[in-house]
Amino acid sequence: MSILSFMTPNNPPEPPAFVCEDKEATQDAIAAYGRAERRVQEINVDINRQVAALSAPYEGELATLKERKAALAGGIRAWCEDNKTLILPKGRKTARFLTGEVAWRAGSKTVEVTGEAQGIIALFKKKRLKRFVETKESIKKAAILQEPERIQDIEGIAIRVGEEAFAIRPFDMAADQAA
C-alpha cells in the first residue's frame, strides 16, 4: 500500500482548488489520487532507468580515470615533497608550474582526548582548570510530559497539544480498479 501523508494544520492557509461534493466523489477522488501517485512513482523509476542506461557506457572510463588521477596525484605529491625546498619560494606554501600549481596548507589545530575523559576532567578540576570542562544542563521534556501537573504554575513553559494530521492513503491498484 502506498502512503502519502500531508501534515497540515486544521486551518489551511488557502482554500483548496478542488472540493469533493459527496462521499462518492470523495471515493473517486481518492482513487484518482492513488493513480496519480502511482504514475509519479512509475515516471521516477523510468527516469532512474534512463539515467542508469545513459551513464552505463561511461562507468568503465570513469573508474579508469579516477584510478589514473589517484596515481598521478600520488606521484606529483611524492616528487613535490622530496623537492619542497627547491620548488617553494621562501616563506610560501604554493609552488607554481607552467601547467598548474601545488600547495601545502596547515590544517586547523584540534584537541584529541587520548586518555580517559573522566580522569582528565577530575584532573582539570583539581588543578583549577574548570574553564576546560563543559557542563551542559537542559530541560527533560519527556519527564515533563510524564508529570504535566507539576509544571502548571511555572511561567515560561507550557504543554502544547499536537496538531491533527490529515493523511491520504489510497489502496493498492487491485482495490482501486474494483471501485
From TrEMBL:
GO terms for biological process: DNA protection. SUPFAM superfamilies: Gam-like. GO terms for molecular function: double-stranded DNA binding. InterPro entries: Host-nuc_inhib_Gam (IPR009951). Pfam families: Phage_Mu_Gam (PF07352). This is Mu-like prophage host-nuclease inhibitor protein Gam. The lineage of its organism: Bacteria, Pseudomonadati, Pseudomonadota, Gammaproteobacteria, Candidatus Kentrum.
